[in-house]
Amino acid sequence: MSTPHLLPNGRVLRYSFHERLVHWMAGISYVYLLLTGLAFWSPWLFWIAAALGGAAVSSQLHPWAGLVFVLAVVRMYQLWGAQMKKTPADKAWLEAMPHYVRNEDESMPSVDRFNPGQKILFWGFWWCGLLLLLSGIILWFTDAIPWSLRFLRYFAVIVHPVAALLTIGLFIIHVYMGTAAERGAFGSVVRGDVSRAWAKRHHQSWYESIVGESSAKK
Ligand code: HEM
Fold it and tell me: Using an 8 Å Cβ cutoff, are 111 and 205 in contact?
């Protein structure tokens, strides 16, 4: 992964092309899983499967889309896992949360590339992704599971929807934060860059390390 850096146009590279590609692999596959999963979950929502090509197509493609999603999340772990670890600075940030909620970013302690909220989201998707994978494989190959191991089926039918519901909560918060709440963030997963002011406002320690790095090179 290339180190985030200052771009010639004075902006800051937040996500490399590779990171954005992986992110959208997760995003697109997740939306497909969400829609087809909801269609199987409730008869009231079955029309979604009909709109997406029918029940047979949706139920055949759902597990494959699940594998794409998990692959993307595993790649995210390789790219960002080290930067998502808890640090002593996170505690101060979490304690100052009321300022964050009131949009008083200037009163927040500075954070590195990812704030604790983003870290919680990441680990939530990671652990729920693993549970969805395990339970999903059992549901995919149910017929191959002998009756003596039927507890695996009980595990899967409970864990799969519970983990999915947890990710839906994370997903709603994430999309709201990334589009409506934090202006300028969405461009970072599309074009890859953010303004210096955005980087300084939301991730001051990260911004300072980039500026320090680039002046050290001069
Ligand atoms: C499909 C709708 C989605 C939208 C509009 C969206 C939007 C965004 C935005 C704007 C950022 C940059 C935030 C920043 O750097 O401040 C971001 C980062 C990220 N996204 Fe998404 N995303 C979507 C789906 C997903 C899904 C399904 C996952 C599940 C793995 C995901 C995981 C992440 C992670 C781990 C990051 C980096 C940390 C963070 O900002 O939370 N995104 N996304």
Answer: yes
pLDDT tens, residue by residue, 90-134: 999 999 888 888 888 888 888 999 999 999 999 999 999 999 999
Helix (H) and strand (E) counts for the chain? 10, 2
Q: What is the pLDDT of residues 125-162, one digit of tens each?
A: 999 999 999 999 999 999 999 999 999 999 999 999 99
Structure tokens at 157: 């039918």
For the chain, the structural domain boundaries read 15-217
Residues having CB within 6 Å of any atom of ligand 1: 14, 23, 26-27, 30-31, 73, 76, 114, 118, 121-122, 125, 171, 174-175, 178-179, 182, 185-186, 188-189
Q: What CATH number does domain 15-217 carry, 3.30.360.10, 1.20.950.20, 3.10.129.10, 3.50.50.60?
A: 1.20.950.20
